[in-house]
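User: Mind token order:
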Amino acid sequence: MSAFEPHIALRYLFSKKGHNAINIVSGISAVAVAVVTAAMICVLSVMNGFGALVEHMFSEFDPVLLVVPAEGQTLRTDVEPVLSLYAREDIEISQQLEQTALIRYKDHQLPARVMGVDSLFTRTAHIDSIITDGFYSVWDGAFDRAVLGRGLAAQLGMNAHFTGALHLYAPERTGRINMLRPDKSLRHEYAFIAGTFAVNQIEYDDQLMLVSLPLAQRLFGYDEFTASALRIRPLKLSNLQTLKHQIAKDLGEGFRVLDRYEQQSDFFRILRIEKWLTVLLLVFILIVASFNIIGSLSMLIIDKREDIRILSHMGADERMIRRIFLLEGWFISSLGTLSGLIIGVLICLGQQHYGWLKLGSGAEYVISAYPVQVQATDIVLVGIIVLLLGFVAAWYPTRKLKIEK
């Protein structure tokens, strides 16, 4: 392609047409593309913002890496593969044992997830940053303590300043159940509340209780070398995926090593599905908006019939003339795309810094304004999608262009 076709196409784009309606339709086409492009950038950035917000919430509690058994609910901590982890100097490890138990406080009782944690738990979770009442402690030197999710504490009708004991019940794992005295088949432990925490996720705040690892092992009938998972905090995060694969290789097939995304795989998968379904919906809107380009270009071809005849007499063949109008339509789409990308990014940056759109205020809101996070990959992807659809919309009216001699 020579420089002749783009030059003529640009002249047609910015010159006054024979009919003012063509200018209006061309302007509407560019504006429609710009609006949809900006909307796509804004929607994707908001979805990214919510994803980053929830990821941050989970990261306050979830470890960087979590080792779980490939089968079953528990793993042994006295076997060689696990012991080899403790020999590494580039990670810190804590143990947890998590199962379901019945929690009773006075007249309130309900099932909850009881997680026993060891003294290194605070190295693998930022628990102090999410304490909402009281303090973090699972053993005070004399009594077992418990730290409850804020919602769970509310359901039990208590807070961090209550002094009554929490009673924990779990069924015996071995032996027969006495049908005459089923209560004799339950293990019983108790602890005193020390504080409450909030991750702002229901599965944590409404269902989880933290206790000491020895208490959990006694409650669920395990010995001191049994845990349900190992929490790992790398001392350096620069080579996380490499470290993950090394640990998985050293542990063997009996274990799985999960990063934070894999620990909350269901949530992030749903978030990605919502994100791309929203993009798909906006693409359909963009397809409708592209019909304006088809109409604008068809009107321009009719308006420039005399110019087409002159170009033909000057030696331009049918293929060259088609390229001129194809570029004309694509320039309209490109102008809208570039404008939309700039407007969308500016809106997102403004929302990020000034918080124009508010979610609300009060304790029930984690943040007051819609979170946004602009990602370069989204900008590139949106640009490619819009330009591709613009090219198709420009190609359609030019494919049957005929030169009248």
Notes: The chain has two domains: 4-58+267-398, 65-261. DSSP finds 13 helices and twelve strands in the chain. The first strand starts at residue 65 and ends at 69.
